[in-house]
Design a protein that fits this description.
Elements lengths: L1 H6 L12 H5 L16 H23 L4 H8 L3 H10 L9
InterPro entries: Homeodomain-like_sf, HTH_Fis
Protein name: Regulatory protein, Fis family
Length: about 100
């Protein structure tokens, strides 16, 4: 962002100022910066999925200001399923209001 602001003329950021990886929409696996926490594939997969789910839920609740029904709808899951995941990761939706 800082690079784009510096290179922009008149305060308007145009697509040509963006880095190639953002313009193409392609990302390398290294861009995700996923720590490998286990040599066991199943355990490592579980940890990565849990980290993703937790981050996803937090961002979803931030966007929807803690509204569980709206968050469930935008995520394409039932309210009950979202509530289950919130309990699983000990996330309180009230803290996002």
């Amino acid at each position: 962002i800082e690079r784009c602001v510096i290179l922009s003329k008149g305060g308007i950021i145009t697509p040509d100022l963006l880095p190639e990886n953002l313009k193409s929409g392609k990302r390398d696996i290294d861009d995700f910066n996923i720590p490998i926490v286990s040599e066991n594939l199943a355990e490592a997969r579980r940890k990565v999925i849990e980290a993703f789910e937790k981050k996803f839920l937090i961002e979803l609740l931030k966007k929807n200001r803690g509204n569980v029904s709206l968050s469930a709808k935008s995520a394409g899951v039932t309210r009950q399923n979202l509530t289950y995941l919130l309990k699983k990761y000990n996330i309180d939706p009230k803290s996002f209001r």
